[in-house]
Amino acid sequence: MSKKLPYNNQPIGVFDSGVGGLSILSALTKLLPDEYFYYYADTKHCPYGPRPAEEIIELSSKVVDFLLEKGCKMVVVACNTATAAAIDHLRSQYSIPFIGLEPAVKPAAKLTKTGHVGILATEGTFQGRLYKETSQQFADHVTLHLQVGKGLVKAVEQNAIESEATKTLLSGYLQPMLEAGVDQIVLGCTHYPFLIPVIEELVEGKATIINPAPAVARQAVRVLKEQSIEAQAGLGQVVLLAASGASDRMYSLWAEVGD
Ligand code: DGL
């Protein structure tokens, strides 16, 4: 068993096309005080949403190669778009465990009382096998109102969350859903939780906003236990951030939302 300890203390890789995955990292660091996290933002290639699946597979594989070089014992694909395009490929190519993100259609379909659920995500996420299968399996009894959040990733990356332009964009996406009677709004992109204050203002309590981050963090805890790869207790937490391109926004946002 003593041989295992050094491996268990290796980092958990977490990646996204940009700063969105920090919403997941923030939830992970709250639940896992002894883990070492290595976050990678592929800001040079952000956004992933409009790119073809083959390109996202290539980009994601490069990021995972980088994280494995850093010794990661597990990788959280903290990006719905990368999960949709690349998680099957990643799982077939690498032997470490992967945790992916997919729009929380299942809990939303369970919770809705009106039978109408809104989903905000990128075009890449809606095109993925996972989204299609999950919505068929768990939401065939509800009406799903899909909306591509064009421009929202950019707004978060550029620190334009509170700008009038972002409010107008969001209002244009949310008002039709609300008029159709949605009572659950699923945030299907890890950038979107940073927009929650603006979304809440627009929604005025008419719908519950579903942020998947806490559930993903609980799933990570389960997988670490199942695989017996939890870090040694009492070791303390380490968080390293890296990016392929611009990194200022990543550091300033982490200063706001990190512990
Ligand atoms: N945070 C990514 C996601 O969850 C961003 C998508 C993008 O880069 O377009 O989908």
Structural write-up:
It is a single chain. This protein has 259 residues and is α/β, with parallel strands linked by helices. The chain folds into two domains: 2-101 and 213-257, Rossmann fold (3-Layer(aba) Sandwich), CATH 3.40.50; 105-210, 3-Layer(aba) Sandwich (Rossmann fold), CATH 3.40.50. The chain has twelve helices and nine strands. The chain has helices spanning 4-8, 22-31, 53-69, 80-93, 105-111, 123-127, 129-138, 152-157, 164-179, 196-203, 213-226, 248-257; strands at 12-16, 36-41, 74-77, 98-99, 116-121, 143-148, 184-188, 208-210, 238-243. The protein has a five-stranded parallel sheet with strand order 4-3-1-2-9, sandwiched between helices. Helix 10 (196-203) links the parallel strand 7 (184-188) and strand 8. Helix 9 (164-179) crosses helix 10 (196-203). It is globular, with a radius of gyration of 18 Å. The chain starts with a helix and ends with a helix. Residues 1-5 have low confidence and may be disordered. Bound molecules: D-glutamic acid. D-glutamic acid binds next to helix 4.
Q: Count of helical segments?
A: 12
List low-pLDDT spans. Answer: 1-5
* Tally of discrete structural domains: 2
Order of helices and strands: HEHEHEHEHEHHEHHEHEHEH
- The class by helix and strand makeup works out as alpha/beta
CATH topology of the largest domain: Rossmann fold
Mind telling me which CATH architecture of the largest domain this is? 3-Layer(aba) Sandwich
Strand fraction band?
15-25%
Termini gap = 32 Å
Small molecules in complex: D-glutamic acid
Largest sheet: 5 strands, parallel
Shape: globular
How much helix is in the residues?
40-55%
> Can you tell me the CATH class of the largest domain?
Alpha Beta
Mean pLDDT: 95
Quaternary state of the chains: single chain
What's the gyration radius in Å?
Answer: 18 Å
Strand numbers in spatial order across the main sheet: 4-3-1-2-9
Per DSSP E runs of 2 or more residues, the count of β-strands stands at 9
